Amino acid sequence: MFEAAFAPAQGDTAPLREPEPLREPGAFDALVREIGEDGAGEVRAVFWSDTSARLKQFRTLELAQHRSKIGREAHSLKSAARTFGYLRLATLAQQLERTADALGDAEFCDLLERMDAAFAAAREQEPQD
Question: 5 with 17: CB under 8 angstroms?
Protein backbone atom coordinates (compact mmCIF):
# COMPACT_ATOMS: atom_id res chain seq x y z
CA MET A 1 0.00 0.00 0.00
CA PHE A 2 1.33 3.46 -0.86
CA GLU A 3 2.09 5.48 2.25
CA ALA A 4 3.38 9.04 2.21
CA ALA A 5 3.31 12.15 4.33
CA PHE A 6 2.20 15.30 2.56
CA ALA A 7 2.97 18.92 3.18
CA PRO A 8 0.03 20.89 4.54
CA ALA A 9 -2.01 22.92 2.10
CA GLN A 10 -1.32 26.62 1.91
CA GLY A 11 -3.06 28.27 4.85
CA ASP A 12 -3.15 25.00 6.79
CA THR A 13 -0.83 25.34 9.76
CA ALA A 14 -0.99 21.70 10.81
CA PRO A 15 2.49 20.20 11.14
CA LEU A 16 3.70 17.57 8.70
CA ARG A 17 2.79 14.17 10.11
CA GLU A 18 2.12 10.60 9.18
CA PRO A 19 -1.16 10.09 7.32
CA GLU A 20 -4.12 8.75 9.21
CA PRO A 21 -4.76 5.05 9.02
CA LEU A 22 -6.71 4.18 5.92
CA ARG A 23 -9.66 2.91 7.90
CA GLU A 24 -10.92 2.16 11.35
CA PRO A 25 -11.16 -1.59 11.87
CA GLY A 26 -14.60 -2.63 13.01
CA ALA A 27 -16.49 0.46 11.83
CA PHE A 28 -18.53 -1.53 9.32
CA ASP A 29 -19.21 -4.24 11.91
CA ALA A 30 -20.62 -1.58 14.24
CA LEU A 31 -22.91 -0.40 11.47
CA VAL A 32 -24.02 -4.00 10.84
CA ARG A 33 -24.93 -4.32 14.53
CA GLU A 34 -27.00 -1.13 14.29
CA ILE A 35 -28.92 -1.69 11.05
CA GLY A 36 -28.26 -5.28 10.03
CA GLU A 37 -26.03 -6.83 7.40
CA ASP A 38 -28.35 -6.21 4.43
CA GLY A 39 -28.97 -2.58 5.39
CA ALA A 40 -25.30 -1.89 6.02
CA GLY A 41 -24.37 -3.45 2.69
CA GLU A 42 -26.94 -1.34 0.86
CA VAL A 43 -25.82 1.85 2.57
CA ARG A 44 -22.17 1.06 1.79
CA ALA A 45 -23.04 0.52 -1.89
CA VAL A 46 -24.68 3.96 -1.94
CA PHE A 47 -21.60 5.42 -0.24
CA TRP A 48 -19.30 4.01 -2.97
CA SER A 49 -21.53 5.36 -5.72
CA ASP A 50 -22.14 8.77 -4.15
CA THR A 51 -18.50 9.25 -3.21
CA SER A 52 -17.31 8.38 -6.70
CA ALA A 53 -19.76 10.90 -8.15
CA ARG A 54 -18.80 13.56 -5.58
CA LEU A 55 -15.08 13.16 -6.29
CA LYS A 56 -15.76 13.54 -10.02
CA GLN A 57 -17.96 16.57 -9.37
CA PHE A 58 -15.16 18.34 -7.48
CA ARG A 59 -13.11 18.25 -10.68
CA THR A 60 -15.89 19.95 -12.66
CA LEU A 61 -16.26 22.87 -10.26
CA GLU A 62 -14.29 26.06 -10.81
CA LEU A 63 -12.62 26.68 -7.45
CA ALA A 64 -12.89 30.47 -7.56
CA GLN A 65 -16.62 30.35 -8.33
CA HIS A 66 -17.73 27.40 -6.19
CA ARG A 67 -15.77 27.55 -2.92
CA SER A 68 -18.94 27.43 -0.81
CA LYS A 69 -20.35 24.42 -2.68
CA ILE A 70 -16.98 22.66 -2.51
CA GLY A 71 -16.93 23.21 1.25
CA ARG A 72 -20.47 21.84 1.67
CA GLU A 73 -19.74 18.79 -0.49
CA ALA A 74 -16.52 18.16 1.43
CA HIS A 75 -18.49 18.31 4.70
CA SER A 76 -20.94 15.69 3.41
CA LEU A 77 -18.12 13.48 2.20
CA LYS A 78 -16.34 13.79 5.55
CA SER A 79 -19.45 12.68 7.44
CA ALA A 80 -20.14 9.73 5.15
CA ALA A 81 -16.52 8.55 5.21
CA ARG A 82 -16.47 8.67 9.01
CA THR A 83 -19.64 6.58 9.19
CA PHE A 84 -17.80 3.75 7.45
CA GLY A 85 -14.51 4.34 9.23
CA TYR A 86 -12.54 5.60 6.21
CA LEU A 87 -10.34 7.82 8.34
CA ARG A 88 -7.89 9.03 5.72
CA LEU A 89 -10.64 10.02 3.29
CA ALA A 90 -12.60 11.72 6.09
CA THR A 91 -9.54 13.68 7.20
CA LEU A 92 -8.76 14.84 3.67
CA ALA A 93 -12.39 15.86 3.15
CA GLN A 94 -12.25 17.77 6.43
CA GLN A 95 -9.10 19.53 5.25
CA LEU A 96 -10.89 20.52 2.04
CA GLU A 97 -13.91 21.70 4.02
CA ARG A 98 -11.75 23.86 6.32
CA THR A 99 -9.56 25.35 3.60
CA ALA A 100 -11.91 25.68 0.61
CA ASP A 101 -12.08 29.45 1.04
CA ALA A 102 -8.29 29.87 0.95
CA LEU A 103 -6.96 27.14 -1.35
CA GLY A 104 -5.15 27.96 -4.55
CA ASP A 105 -5.77 25.89 -7.67
CA ALA A 106 -2.59 23.82 -7.25
CA GLU A 107 -3.39 22.96 -3.62
CA PHE A 108 -6.96 22.11 -4.56
CA CYS A 109 -5.78 19.75 -7.31
CA ASP A 110 -3.25 18.14 -4.95
CA LEU A 111 -5.91 17.59 -2.31
CA LEU A 112 -8.28 16.06 -4.88
CA GLU A 113 -5.51 13.67 -5.99
CA ARG A 114 -4.95 12.62 -2.38
CA MET A 115 -8.70 12.11 -1.86
CA ASP A 116 -8.93 10.01 -5.03
CA ALA A 117 -6.02 7.88 -3.80
CA ALA A 118 -7.59 7.43 -0.35
CA PHE A 119 -10.90 6.44 -1.95
CA ALA A 120 -9.23 3.95 -4.30
CA ALA A 121 -7.24 2.43 -1.43
CA ALA A 122 -10.41 2.08 0.67
CA ARG A 123 -12.18 0.36 -2.23
CA GLU A 124 -9.31 -2.09 -2.59
CA GLN A 125 -9.70 -3.17 1.03
CA GLU A 126 -13.43 -3.77 0.87
CA PRO A 127 -15.36 -6.65 -0.65
CA GLN A 128 -17.07 -5.74 -3.91
CA ASP A 129 -20.80 -6.24 -3.43
Answer: yes
